[in-house]
Amino acid sequence: MLETLQNLYVGFSVALAPTVFLYAVIGCVIGTLVGVLPGIGPLAGISLLLPASFGMDATSAIVLLAGIYYGAMYGGSTTSILMRIPGEAASVMTCIDGYAMTRNGRAGPALAIAAVGSYIAGTVSVVALMLLAPPLANFALRFGPPEYFALLTLGLLALAYMSGGSIVKSLAMAALGLLLGMIGIDPMTGFFRFSYGLVELGDGIGVVPVAVGLFGLSEILLTAGQEKPPEVIKPKLADLLPSREEWRDSTWPIARGTVLGFLIGIVPGSAHIIASFVSYAVERRVSKHPERFGHGAIAGVAGPESANNSATSGAFVPMLALGVPSGPIPAVMLAALMVHGISPGPLLIQQQPKLFWGFIASMYVGNVVLLILNLPLVGLFVNILRVPYSLLYPAILVFCVLGVYAVNGSVVDVWIMIVMGALGYALRKFDFETAPVVLGVVLAPMLEMSFRQSLAMSSGSYAIFFQRPIAVSMLAGGAALLLLSLLPILTKSMDWRRALGLDEKSD
Amino acid sequence: MTTNRISGATLSLFSVWVIWESRKLPLGTFHNPGPAFMPVLLASLLLVFGILITVTGGSAERFHTLQWKELPHAAVIVVACICSALALERLGYRITIFLILFVLVKFVEKRAWLGATLFALALSFGSFYLFYTLLRVPLPLGPWGI
Amino acid sequence: MKRITLIVLCVCVFLGAPLRLPAQETFPSRPITIVVPFPPGGVADLTARPVAAAMEKIIKQPVVVVNKTGAAGAVGMSFVANSKPDGYNLLMALSSISIIPEADKLFDRQPAYTMDQLVPLALISADPTILVVGADHPWKSVKDFVADAKKRPGEISYSSSGVYGTLHMAMELLSHAAGIKLKHVPYGGAGPALTAVLGGHQDALASGPAVVIPHIKGGKLRPLAGWGAKRVASLPDVATFKELGYDAEFYIWAGMFAPRGTPEPLLQKLRNVLRETVQQAEFKDAMAKMETPIAYMDAPEFQKFWDKDAKVLAEAIKRIGRIEEPK
């Protein structure tokens, strides 16, 4: 413990050195900007600015990139809440209740809670990262394909709590999303599936154009043409801050989101999106007012936003402790270290204590910087809503095109966004929810890959899912959850039968 | 016809089409799933859900009660998006975005000439400067480097 | 709306046209783009960045690296193959450039590009892959490994960066040379493939040396042999397959290409620039930091190397054939 504190002291002396501190601030600002832009999330942001970090020393470079990473996670919620456009893929769930809060005139509190939740989650998870990294990293490595499959199946269960409407309709939407996720090269055999000669579809359709199209563009299509333009919401100063009740309703969701996000985040893979989905489902499950979800429940913002931020730190656990590229973002950061001649590996913490502890300390600093940066911005961002919609929506449209294009520099992505926008418009006209489609697109490639990898490992035996302790306990947990969620449906249908019986009697 | 009947039937037809399209790919076996395994499985699930929606959809909203007042406007916006996708790598980011914004604000939203021009200019060049010049996001340049 | 577009277009043409003409005389007169068909942080990207930085100093024009990713690199490669052959669009490709057209052939697909659409400019680096196994496995040498694989055909597993990817090819060459059968479990990239071996989910992996050396030093992985003609400088104790009598040679190489049809003087100029580039101290320094040795070859030599490599890979792909079901 004393040693940790000493190390942390060294770390802070590195992180608060003027140049390193400056880079942390720059990283946070850039990350916020990139995150606010629809579509461009942390991965695209880091990738774009990776070359700029080549000229710096290793510590500054990694601090800058980490700043961009969690800056983007903070910023991603802004457009989700204000315009129903996911700033990055992990903010999809924030769109639902965040935007509903905006329509209720509570945009300020939603943004403030998102920022505070992110801050708490970010800070607590750094503490966990600092104290628990090595043992947790070894645990994370035990996640092979069967475990991953079990985790994703658990993620699919989130579906049951995702929409207030008909369960069959959301299942159909999830199936549609999973089907869309099948497009592209089959990772196990190399067959092109449903690509119709388009090489660009080889890697499948990205989550970003699908999410921006289904959420953002469809919202514009539905709103812009209404006879009465949506009312310009003029926020009052008193409405900027969350009420006492909103604070109280967010406390536990933030706490649960933090723990959940961190645990899911350490699993190698792009888990931070799943973390926000699962957190939303959990909040809805434990809430005393599940009917409020979808209509502006603050818990539906606080939980997922905290979860995706603590998943950010969780993802660093295997990367720093073992030098394992545990996801696309840590992989880019490891590359940044290699460029500086530091070989990331299991000995990183011993060989580069200044880098490690400086990095940890800069994460504390970065979270404070982001909170200070984001809270005043709430007032500024909320004022965007004063712009009349006839000017606002063309601008939003431009940013959607810009953000979606910039992720891969691909016009095909813009086309996908347009098609998804039209599809989302039609689906919402017919009273379908679009969030399950996004969940399907996110999960499909990973689900199929881990399923078939597992079978390849076991030479076709399904027993592999039941022989490994982590996998089997997760699947059992999932089955229990499923039964729990079916219980009300069963009792309800009994009510319905009883009601019908009464009707028959009265006939 | 109710909305659910129509949407359920459409989803069912779509899933049948997916199953038909998967015939070109090897299905594999239960123990060795091939590339068509998951698509066929998922499409079959979608088919089941689609049929369920169709069958139970008798009591949903009637199709003709749906309001389509915003449809013309939405169609114009989609056309604008399509034009931007076509033009983006040919005319470059700034010209494309300027034109799209100008057309939307001036002709679709019927705002004043000067306001529309200034708005389109500021936003197209401003966003380009911020993201291309400062943040180094690669955006397409048109002919003559604009 | 159409008319306005036209007017704007005409104005642009008249404003732009006179500015453009005199600029064509010397090459290069505007920024050069190096297309990297893989995401940032990968081998191709990390090679292209220092090349671009060093080239800028020589030609006094900006050199921009653009990542055009998708379909295992096919998107970016076909982009350059079909771009204007004016010397301003170059490609930094890896060994997989020879694999994709062959895989397209195997599946009777319309090829995304063909190899003769591109001309080689220079080879920059060529890293032999290294066979590593988890340190808790009993195999101490290739002999143990091969003997065990013969005893239990199809049971020892290896991870790869993807089906028909470079790491899959390396293992296929070894399996063929040693006459063994291994279980292939593809992953979505070299990073996840490495993680799988570190986590003990798969047994073996062929990988570039730079990535695995820290894990070898940390005692998590054990190197058995390398695919190079010579031993890797940073792993002097690790023998090559050639030394051990297996005919398996494989490199993950990175080279620069231009679209075919680029005028000869421009190609000549670019080759000269690249020759100078690899001699820059700054470039050497950057490559040394990444533990990637420079293996420069000029175009004629590189063409021969490429032809030979492509032939070996084409044979390997035919041998693997279509994978209808995971083996």
Can you describe this structure in just a few lines?
Chain B has 146 residues and is mainly α. Helices cover 67% and strands 0% of the residues of chain B.
Please characterize this protein's 3D structure.
The complex is a heterotrimer of chains A (507), B (146) and C (327). With 507 residues, chain A is mostly helical. Chain A contains 20 helices and two strands. Chain A has helices spanning 2-15, 18-36, 42-49, 58-83, 92-103, 107-141, 145-157, 167-180, 207-224, 244-265, 272-286, 299-322, 328-339, 348-351, 353-382, 389-408, 411-429, 435-457, 464-467, 469-506, and strands spanning 184-185, 192-193. Chain A has a two-stranded antiparallel sheet with strand order 1-2. In chain A, strand 1 and strand 2 form a beta hairpin. The longest helix of chain A has 38 residues, at 469-506. Chain A starts with a helix and ends with a helix. The relative contact order of chain A is 0.18. Chain B contains five helices and no strands. The model of chain B has no long low-confidence stretch (mean pLDDT 88). Chain C is of the alpha/beta class and 327 residues long. Chain C has helices spanning 2-20, 43-59, 74-81, 99-106, 142-151, 166-178, 190-198, 209-217, 264-277, 281-289, 299-320, and strands spanning 32-36, 63-67, 89-94, 118-128, 130-134, 157-160, 183-186, 204-207, 221-226, 251-259, 294-298. In chain C, the strands form two sheets. Chain C has a six-stranded mixed β-sheet with strand order 2-1-3-10-4-11, sandwiched between helices. Mean pLDDT of chain C is 85; it is low at 8-24. Classes of the chains: A mainly alpha (507), B mainly alpha (146), C alpha/beta (327). Chains in contact: A-B, A-C, B-C. At the A-B interface, helix 2, helix 8, helix 9, helix 16 and helix 17 of A face helix 1, helix 2, helix 3, helix 4 and helix 5 of B.
Q: Can you count the helices of chain C?
A: 11
User: Which structural class do you get from the secondary structure elements of chain B?
Assistant: mainly alpha
Largest sheet of chain C, described in full? 6 strands, mixed
What is the makeup of the main sheet of chain B?
A: none
User: Taking all residues together, what is the mean pLDDT of chain C?
Assistant: 85
Amount of helix of chain B:
55-70%
What's the average pLDDT of chain B? Answer: 88
The stretches of 5 or more residues of chain B where confidence is low (pLDDT under 50) are none
State the end-to-end CA separation of chain C: 59 Å
Helices and strands of chain B, in order, run as: HHHHH
Gross morphology of chain B is: flat
Basic shape of chain C: globular
Number of strands of chain B: 0
Would you report the number of β strands of chain C? 11
Report, as a whole number of angstroms, the end-to-end distance of chain B. 52 Å
